[in-house]
From TrEMBL:
The keyword Manganese applies. GO terms for molecular function: identical protein binding; manganese ion binding; superoxide dismutase activity. Its cofactor is Mn(2+). It is found in: Mitochondrion matrix. Keywords: Manganese, Metal-binding, Mitochondrion, Nitration, Oxidoreductase, Ubl conjugation. Homotetramer. Its EC number is 1.15.1.1. This is Superoxide dismutase. It comes from Propithecus coquereli.
Length: 222
């Protein structure tokens, strides 16, 4: 089912890209908290570099790539359009993923979700602890760089945990609607946790914004 959803997403890409002529440039979103607000779990230096340098680079490169794509589209240059697809996927995915990630975190986060989201987690994973253990394991097991995700499968009406490599966007590559993403690129943790990714993954649960995740869950079911 996921392959059909991903195929549908790919088919929907062409008309969306055809609208680039009237597009507005993407911009770096403001964080909903200060760079040091997630300490001691994620320090201010990491947050500043991650947001103002890494995310900003994805936004800038996405705008550049879309301009080039627009030119190729106007010329009917299909070869260049195809050649630009990896850059669109990487930088567009980086922008999408990080925009979700910042809102998935909060200085008032941690603990467990409540209500409908918690019931769905228990239904699909057995318990919150089993869910937490599985998402941690999937995120820890990403080879190189990538993301661990909790997503919603709209066709099946259930939650799923998957990993995506590099900056592959969850919905655009699997069809799952993103609810919670955990960035396991080294730039997300190395300055504080060095090469010990499991320590970072243990700490990040203390700042998960369950209210945001729950809002995403309710919205995607409509």
């Amino acid at each position: 089912m996921l392959s059909r959803a991903a195929s549908s997403t790919s088919r929907g890409l062409a008309p969306a890209l055809a609208c680039l002529g009237s597009r507005q440039k993407h911009s770096l979103p403001d964080l909903p908290y200060d760079y040091g607000a997630l300490e001691p779990h994620i320090n201010a230096q990491i947050m500043q570099l991650h947001h103002s340098k890494h995310h900003a680079a994805y936004v800038n490169n996405l705008n550049i790539t879309e301009e080039k794509y627009q030119e190729a589209l106007a010329k009917g240059d299909v070869t260049t359009q195809i050649a630009l697809q990896p850059a669109l996927k990487f930088n567009g995915g980086g922008h999408i993923n990080h925009t979700i990630f910042w809102t998935n975190l909060s200085p008032n986060g941690g603990g467990e979700p409540k209500g409908e989201l918690l019931e769905a987690i228990k239904r699909d994973f057995g318990s919150f602890d089993k869910f937490k253990e599985k998402l941690t394991a999937v995120s820890a097991g990403v080879q190189g760089s990538g993301w661990g995700w909790l997503g919603f499968n709209k066709e099946q009406g259930r939650l799923q945990i998957v990993a995506c490599p590099n900056q592959d966007p969850l919905q655009g590559t699997t069809g799952l609607i993103p609810l919670l993403g955990i960035d396991v690129w080294e730039h997300a943790y190395y300055l504080q946790y060095k090469n010990v990714r499991p320590d970072y993954l243990k700490a990040i649960w203390n700042v998960i914004n369950w209210q945001n995740v729950a809002e995403r869950y309710v919205a995607c079911k409509k």
